[in-house]
Design a protein that fits this description.
With 399 residues, the protein is an alpha+beta fold. The chain has helices spanning 40-43, 57-168, 171-176, 179-188, 209-222, and strands at 29-31, 36-38, 54-56, 240-242, 248-251, 271-273, 282-288, 294-301, 321-327, 330-335, 338-342, 350-356, 361-366, 371-377, 384-390, 394-397. It is elongated, with a radius of gyration of 46 Å. Mean pLDDT is 88; it is low at 1-13.
Length: 399
Amino acid sequence: MSGESVGPGPGSGPEPGPLCPEHGQALKWFCCSERRPVCAACTELGGRCRGHRIRLVEERAEELRNKIVDQCERLQLQSACINKYVAEVLPGKNQRAVSTASAARELVIQRLGLVRSLCETEEQRLLERVHGEEERAQQSILTQRVHWAEALQKLDTIRTSLVDMLTHMDDLQLIKEQEIFERTEEAEGILDPQESKKLNFNEKCARSRLLTQLWATAALCSLSGLEDVRIDERTVSPFLQLSDDRRTLTFNAKKSKTCADSPERFDHWPNALGAVSFQAGLHAWMVNVQNSCAYKVGVASGQLPRKGSGNDSRLGHNAFSWVFSRYDQEFCFSHDGQHEPLGLLRCPAQLGMLLDLQAQELLFFDPASGMVLHTHHTAFPGPLFPVFAVADQTISIVH
């Protein structure tokens, strides 16, 4: 037996108190291994606690009393600390919370008031521009009406004069009449009406960078979520590898021999179309482009040719595709062979597209900053498909 005290021998004085149920002796010892009170016989040869570490019950009780005292002191200190926190700290916290909330409320009101004021000013400015453009177009049309009314009157006078000559002159008079040639030249001087842009309302007067930015932010906030765009595997170029979830395209310089050719598949340029098409409404989707230095994203008409190495199937080089493209550190918007450089200060990690078919507008934005990178207005032929091209590493549709 090992322990802090040695068990007593038999017959050592009276043994008051609870007795050991096994030996009938007083429980004066505490077994630290089994954590229970035992008698002296339990610690001796043949006892179940022989070899265990044992202590006198009084020592163990004293140790527990000291621990309880220490715990009570700690609880008292903890209570004092809590009382002080409740009495001194929380009131200050509450006062600061009220003050901070008030300041935050004022900041929200101030900033939204500024935004509201800016919106109202921009609304007034744009409405005045629209009104001015409307008046200009109407004035141009009115001027044209007056001009062509005078021209019609002049033509009618010339015609009447010529008919009168034809009716009342004999042959000799007719061949000598110089007025016939003068009237004819005068009539030839009145040109036929020609199409003029001045007679059309210029819709650009209703556009502004600020309005586009505000509208894009509001439109994105109002949408329930991004479109679940996936790639149509039938259209994927043999130079691209499509992931199992149909959202990631990886460029491969070596043409795959496992891709079965089909009318839908691009056979030369590293292009692919989305599986979903849009014919009306407002739609948004995003593409992760941070790993690629050569890509194109945008929309394309279903009429986009798929075959050959010419511009007919090259994104941005025909009338059927509208794309944002990157090559190394150069960015541009491309359509029908026209390339508009975009001076970006940094390379976007993600690229968002917002397509408003009611307003006939395609917008490219940087989701990280919320900045509109480019907008394009045109009469899009429907339906339109998301379109992708990658010639370096990978791009992925964000879901």
